[in-house]
Amino acid sequence: MTPSKNPMQRIVLFGATSAIASAVARELATPEARLFCVARDGDALEALLADLRVRADDTDSTRIQGTTADLADIDAQAAVWQQAQQALGQVDGVLLAWGTLPDQAACEASVEATLDAIHVNGTSAIALLARIAPDFERQGRGVIAAIGSVAGDRGRQSNYAYGTAKGMLATYLQGLRNRLFFHGVDVVTIKPGFVRTPMTAGFNRAGALWAEPEAVASGIVKAMRRGREVAYLPWIWRVIMTVIRLLPEYLFKRLKL
Amino acid sequence: MTVSWNRIPQVEHAAETTLERRGRALPEVPRPLLAHGLGRSYGDVCLNPGASLLHTPGLDRFVAFDPATGILRAEAGLSLDALLRFAVPRGWFPPVVPGTRFVTLGGAVANDVHGKNHHQAGSFGDHVLALTLRRSDGQLLEITPQGHPEWFAATVGGLGLTGLIETVTLQLAPVRSAWMRAWSERFDSLDEFWELNARGEREWPYTVAWIDCLNPGRDGRVGRGIYSAARHATTAPRKAAWREPRRSIPLDPPVSLVNRFTLRAFNHLYYRQPVHATPRAVHHQPWLFPLDAIRHWNRIYGHQGFYQYQCVLPPHAAQDGVQALLDTIAASGQGSFLAVLKTFGARAAPGMLSFPRPGATLALDFPKKGQATERLFARLDAIVQEAGGALYPAKDARMPATMFRTGFPCWEAFADYVDPEFSSGFWRRVTA
């Protein structure tokens, strides 16, 4: 038995139609669950909700709900969060899972592209975390999880705009974890490695380091249940990133990673 | 490189795209296109050499399920494995399942697959209530057997050539447990098989026989084997314990493990396995999907792959024809691990290119041995054609075009429904 600390029945998924979040939603879609899914694309959201309703035996569409929103639009976040709270009554946990994999070359050619990548993957997530934190503080329980990345552990030439955003997110989550610990709320930083999702469709994805979204999703659910601090998924990435972080910078700058 | 389950042929594609959402325009990749599910067919019905594959397993969402009627609508990339995990605990079962649960709904429709219950339940297409089909001109056709009988007959068994099947609406069958009641009995000759089968088919919804195609029976002729029959159990056994095996062939052996010696030994041992003449409880997985217990079992043949040979012979020619096929195989010295014999029910199949038809079907697999294998297949082809039979496209990597055309006389009428931007290696091979 896995030690289960946090109930995972009333969950809000932000960026729910991403491959990883959809797989998390499927795992959580039981007859006891109440889920609220937020996504940008209306058709994709409807398809996800229909699937989850079947899996959760939600024949009257009351327990599985959702709304469309562009979460990169910070002004829209407050209303979405309110809607989610109203739909679920009480929130056991949230997962922040939206993001893009920006084209590093495009970022190097454009200041706007760099700042946009940092906004979508970092600042906008921090804005939502800042907004929901007081509510969790007040209720004195629950779990907040956000999907960072191993790319945030160290800046590399191949994707440092993305890495900067995810690194910033990880640092924010660290501070938030420290703050909310004293209020009984767990904050989980998810750091997936390479995952076979539409976001990485352009890569050659053969090899043992590439994981399926379902495997990463079950790691996320487990980490949220247990209230883990930082979950590298799959676990081998903790080892890999420890080595990468330990390389001295005078050497690291010479590598083509 | 994407290959089918038997790894023949090994061909390159111009592009391979993963479909993520239904309801979208077909992707901008080189034409012609072909949907590819889990790649469990044996040959080139699921391949499109030099052109594009659309991988469908990401289209695996449920759309709707009515627990009162058992009517399920889902995207076509959903696997029967996922469907079983969902449906069985809720008291429902796919009405027809092939010998592996790792196939998609779309693949089951496109090949109009059959199962061990064909004599009672027909083929997969008999239980399909509706389909949605994306055509290359942008249309999304909503096809029902009543509303569009001609499109339905073309798409069921249509080898994925009429367009991209996006969703399937299926009538599930009620079951009361995940278990089956099953019995088995040895037979010493084909005559004994036909006797057993007449009795078995009358009373049991699922029947199948395995044949030892290397070691003769007491009368000196090949045809001994094991007959099995089952039905869904009304209750689980009191000490119901079933754990899914996690065995796997982890890698390709450097040479094929299938040779004259291992085949003879395997067939002998298989024949000597304990049989249970009185029905007993068996979980549905080992009974319906025995080979799924060993992941990647196709690797035992090594990298070069193997062939399946599955034919159907009409009723009047079945008894002599099956014996002639087995005698020919025995004389060639090239045996098969799993020779499976089953009779189809006396019913017309729903698809223009459906394989199931009244008679008996025999399925065998053979290691790839160059000229010797080809000579054997030519002799088997002659027997099948003489009997007025046909070969199963889903299991074929080599049949001559003439064999396809005589076995599937509707093929020219079917060709009118083929989407102009869809094709497959198989289709080009048998119609060129």
Under CATH, the topology of chain A is which?
Rossmann fold
* Second-tier CATH architecture of chain B: 2-Layer Sandwich
Name the helicity range of chain A. 40-55%
Largest interface: A-B, 12 and 13 residues
- Taking all Cα atoms into account, the compactness measure Rg of chain B is 21 Å
Which architecture name of chain A does CATH use? 3-Layer(aba) Sandwich
- Write the CATH fold name of chain B: Uridine Diphospho-n-acetylenolpyruvylglucosamine Reductase, domain 3
What fraction strand of chain A?
Answer: 15-25%
CATH H-tier superfamily of chain A = NAD(P)-binding Rossmann-like Domain
Integer count of domains of chain B: 1
Total of DSSP H or I helical runs spanning 4+ residues of chain A = 9
| Helix content bin of chain B | 25-40%
Strands in their spatial order, largest beta sheet of chain B? 15-11-13-12-18-19-17-20
Which structural class do you get from the secondary structure elements of chain B? alpha+beta
Task: Please summarize what this structure is.
Chain A has 257 residues and is α/β, with parallel strands linked by helices. Helix content of chain A is 49%, strand content 16%.
Helix and strand arrangement:
The complex is a heterodimer of chains A (257) and B (432).
Chain A: E1 10-14, H1 19-28, E2 34-39, H2 42-55, E3 64-68, H3 74-88, E4 93-96, H4 104-109, H5 111-139, E5 143-147, H6 160-181, E6 186-192, E7 194-195, E8 210-211, H7 213-226, E9 230-233, H8 236-246, H9 249-252
Parallel strand pairs in A: 1-2, 1-4, 2-3, 4-5, 5-6, 6-9, 7-8
Helix pairs in contact in A: 1-7, 3-5, 5-6
Chain B: E1 15-18, E2 33-36, E3 52-55, E4 62-66, E5 71-75, H1 80-87, E6 92-93, H2 105-110, H3 118-121, E7 128-134, E8 140-143, H4 149-155, E9 164-171, E10 173-174, E11 179-187, H5 190-203, E12 206-211, E13 225-232, E14 247-248, H6 260-271, E15 280-283, H7 284-288, E16 294-295, E17 306-313, H8 315-332, E18 339-344, E19 359-367, H9 371-386, E20 390-391, H10 401-407, H11 411-415, H12 425-431
Parallel strand pairs in B: 1-3, 2-3, 14-16
Antiparallel strand pairs in B: 4-5, 5-9, 6-10, 7-8, 7-9, 11-13, 11-15, 12-13, 12-18, 17-19, 17-20, 18-19
Helix pairs in contact in B: 8-9
